[in-house]
TrEMBL record:
Keywords: Signal. It holds the Pfam family LTP_2. Residues 14-105 form the Bifunctional inhibitor/plant lipid transfer protein/seed storage helical domain. The keyword Signal applies. Residues 1-19 form the signal peptide. This is Bifunctional inhibitor/plant lipid transfer protein/seed storage helical domain-containing protein. It comes from Papaver atlanticum.
């Protein structure tokens, strides 16, 4: 159930990135990684509504291969209405993905 609810929020976050992404997973903006996998495996962990929960191993496997600061640069105010940037940063950090202090993600900073 949580994955169905969470999918919507993260899908919105990734929609902007995917719009500029070629079929091989590398965007025109230089964001690299499995962005489709990021959507399918991590959606439930970043939706604004609901509690903060630890991401799965599958989610972390994908997160480690994605350029999080690049994805963060794609976040619009509309996306922030559905996705918790604090949760996005939490998931990245929990999964061992370095997000440099001061990185801007939407309107928030790490």
């Amino acid at each position: 159930m949580a994955s169905k609810v969470g999918f919507l929020g993260f899908a919105v976050l990734i929609v902007v990135v995917l719009a500029a992404t070629s079929n091989d997973g590398v965007s025109a903006d230089g964001c690299e990684g499995d962005l489709r996998g990021l959507t399918s495996r991590c959606a439930q962990y970043v939706l604004k509504i609901g509690p903060k929960i630890r991401p799965s191993r599958g989610c972390c496997d994908v997160v480690r291969k994605v350029d999080i600061p690049c994805v963060c640069r794609q976040v619009t105010p509309e996306i922030e209405k559905l996705v918790s940037i604090k949760k996005v940063l939490y998931v990245a950090q929990f999964c061992g993905k370095d997000v440099p202090h001061g990185t801007k993600c939407g309107s928030k900073y790490s």
